[in-house]
Amino acid sequence: MPRADDRDLSVGPGCRVPATEVTWRFGPSGGPGGQHANRVNSRVEAGLDLESARGIDDEVRALLVDRLGSTLRVVVDAGRSQARNRDRALDLLEQRMQEALQVRRPRRPTRPGRGAVERRLSAKRRKAQRKSERGRRWDDD
User: Fold this and answer.
1) In whole angstroms, what is the distance from residue 68 CA to residue 70 CA?
2) What is the pLDDT of residues 7-17, one digit of tens each?
3) What is the reported pLDDT for 45?
4) Which long-range contacts (CB under 8 A, 24 or more apart) does 35-42 make?
5) pLDDT, position 5
6) What is the spatial distance between Cα 43 and Cα 65, in angstroms, rounded to a whole number?
7) Could you give the CA distance from residue 43 to residue 76 in angstroms, rounded to a whole number?
8) Mind listing the pLDDT tens digit for each residue in 21-73?
9) Which residues lie closer than 8 Å to 59 by C-beta, 6 or more apart?
10) How remote is the C-alpha of 50 from its chain's centroid?
11) Class of domain 4-101
12) What are the boundaries of each domain within the chain?
């Protein structure tokens, strides 16, 4: 079975980080589970220093640091196995870097159409008319 350290984090063109660049911390996962949960360090915290990691082009590195910060960290404690959590942590690191490299289309502001404006204003007029009919008429006494 391949180890988590044997693979590369392939994010896209200009970014192929070896998994040996990832720093690991382990601890017991929280919550119930009895004796097994208290003895096994299955919680995984993975960190990647984006400023010094090998395998990232300079322009891609600048974009990642700008969007994610200098260090990228993920914590996984969903599985019972440390190996499974390590694989999941690498997947999450890869996913976050891919999302950060996505080119976002600039938002083009829109305005409501004329029909929508007219419907809104006529609804306001109807509501105001209904409310004014509810009140007492002091001049009708």
Assistant:
1) 7
2) 888 888 878 88
3) 95
4) 36/80, 40/80, 40/82, 41/82, 42/77, 42/79, 42/80, 42/81, 42/82, 42/85
5) 62
6) 26
7) 6
8) 999 999 888 777 667 767 788 899 999 999 988 888 888 889 999 999 999 99
9) 14
10) 17
11) alpha beta
12) 4-101
